[in-house]
Amino acid sequence: MFDIWKNLKELVRVNYRHVRTTNLVFTLHTKVTVVILVGLSILVTSRQYLGDPIDCISSADIKNIADKYCWIHSTFTRGRLDDDGKWGYEAVEESDVSPGIRPAVDGDDPRIYHTYYQWVWAVLFMQGGFFYIPYWIWKFCDRGRIKMLVADLNLRVLSDEEKVSKEKAAILRYFAPNRGHHTLYSFQYIGCEVLNFLNVIWQMYWTNVFLNYEFSNYGLNLFNLTQKRPYSRHDELARVFPVVTACRLSTGGPAFNSVEYDLLCILPINILNEKIYIFLWFWFLLLGLLSGINLIYRLITVCIPPLRARLLLRHVRMRKGYDLDDLKMSYGDFFLLYKLGENLNPIVFSELLQELVHHGTDDDEKKSLTKASILRKDSDPKQSINSIIERL
To answer: Using CA atoms, how far apart are residues 373 and 345, in angstroms rounded to an integer?
Structure first.
């Protein structure tokens, strides 16, 4: 268990020499959320298997088997139909021991069995794996490209000027033949961001199914409870993770007849589960909103090329005197430059942009001169033929 915690710590450990290939929203999805879900899974597992997840009130002769039987075969509560046609708990009555714990009434309050709390740890761990998949895909697509280009230029203090100039020249040599060929690379990253957004929507839906379609209103129910008077509350959250439940234990009597015991069980584990899913309701909602805003930002940068130069200037220390209008670049080139700007030393990145603008204008001049020379060559034979005809 300690090895798992150590690996989780390494996943989110801040290393200033580490090359960042993802933005904050991507990191929240694929690292922070993974650590949260796996950590919560370990916490629930420790409470469930190392602690006492259930404690049933029973006589001494069946005490040894009551807890295990009710945990394995699940416990239940009793509910009634509400105005929306869903089974729920009405206000606590005098005959109710706890919400959902009341005497049976024929045809009015069927049993609502609760079995999913046994699998909370597994579901949390599995969800953590799903959130890590987009990062694994992007890591495969990146293949260490940004790390290779950045080398040691991400340090805030650079002492070896000769080494800096060589590595900066290496970046320029890379961009010379590869300019305009990074579109697929950039859209692979955008595809992973879309996958992050779809994944959090799917996890919200899957969690809602897992919790018997109660998760969608879980956070709203919490707000409703805080606005009600204490004596008029009926705990909607208890429908999902009830702390007090009932259990019916059937055993064989001395004459081989069936003997049934109606037991009252306390589930301390559900206190933890309730808090976990209240947090996850707000966390998933936050991730969905941030991912939606991030995708809108991506769409704007793809559709509005002039905005890209302004975004690149965010990583330049001295912005005055910079004119990036001459820097012709596709969205893929902008994406790679922006990632380099997030990792390079600001001074080095400023010099790199100046060199790219300079090389870009030189290339345009060379192309124009080449076209002009071609036109001259094409025109010379015609002129010579015309001159020969005139002489004749």
So the answer is: 42
